[in-house]
Amino acid sequence: MTSDSTATKTLGPDGKPVVPDHVADAIRTLIEWAGDDPTREGLIDTPKRVARAWVEYCQGYAEDPSVHLSRTFEEVGGYDELVLLKDIPFQSHCEHHMAPITGKASIAYMPKNRVVGISKLARVLNGYARRLQVQERLTAEVAQCIWDNLQPHGVAVVIEAQHGCMTGRGVRTPGVGMVTSRLLGCFLDDHRSRKEVMSLMGY
Ligand SMILES: [Zn+2]
């Protein structure tokens, strides 16, 4: 999705997103389907809360993550070594079960001419994580966005995450993490650069 897809929600006088009736009804239906009574006291306001929580979980649809890389610094003082942001925590949701994916990402690039403020890499990650995702695509999208916008010598993204759909249902394997990586440019082509970045990331 791009920034022109309208995921922006109408806000009520309390500053919170307005939840349309059909959305609240859908969540009530799901509560019933799960086996509970959506009219009991504890669940009365749950449909609204769930709907608003999902606006937050999926905030990424309302933004184009590449905007975070539009302001670059060209004066890098001859610095041409790799830049690494390690173990950035994130939360996403899997597109197959809408279950949480929680994990950490390490993002590195080898600048050519341009660098960005280091917090911007985390913003790019969040822009893609706050959508319905699969871990492989999330990893690839973050790498590609940096590659396209900074045009560096190389990009490396490694994501390690746990999937709620594996830990809480199905095979129920808590503690099992899945690791995905995407290497581009020098990190893909040059054995020494790849070794360096992976060891700095702790792999
Ligand atoms: Zn899943």
From TrEMBL:
Pathway: Cofactor biosynthesis; 7,8-dihydroneopterin triphosphate biosynthesis; 7,8-dihydroneopterin triphosphate from GTP: step 1/1
GO biological process, alphabetically ordered: one-carbon metabolic process; tetrahydrobiopterin biosynthetic process; tetrahydrofolate biosynthetic process
Subunit relationships: Homopolymer. Toroid-shaped homodecamer, composed of two pentamers of five dimers.
Reactions mediated catalytically: GTP + H2O = 7,8-dihydroneopterin 3'-triphosphate + formate + H(+)
UniProt-listed PANTHER family: GTP CYCLOHYDROLASE 1, GTP CYCLOHYDROLASE I
Entry's Gene Ontology molecular function annotations: GTP binding; GTP cyclohydrolase I activity; zinc ion binding
Protein name, per record: GTP cyclohydrolase 1
Source organism of the structure: Sphingomonas lacunae
UniProt cross-references to NCBIfam families, sorted A to Z: folE (TIGR00063), PRK09347.1-2 (NF006825), PRK09347.1-3 (NF006826)
Family: Belongs to the GTP cyclohydrolase I family.
Name of the top EC class for this enzyme: hydrolase
GTP cyclohydrolase I domain boundaries: 24-201
SUPFAM superfamilies: Tetrahydrobiopterin biosynthesis enzymes-like (SSF55620)
UniProt EC number: 3.5.4.16
GO cellular component, one term: cytoplasm
Keywords: GTP-binding, Hydrolase, Metal-binding, Nucleotide-binding, One-carbon metabolism, Zinc
Gene encoding the protein: folE
Transmembrane segments: none
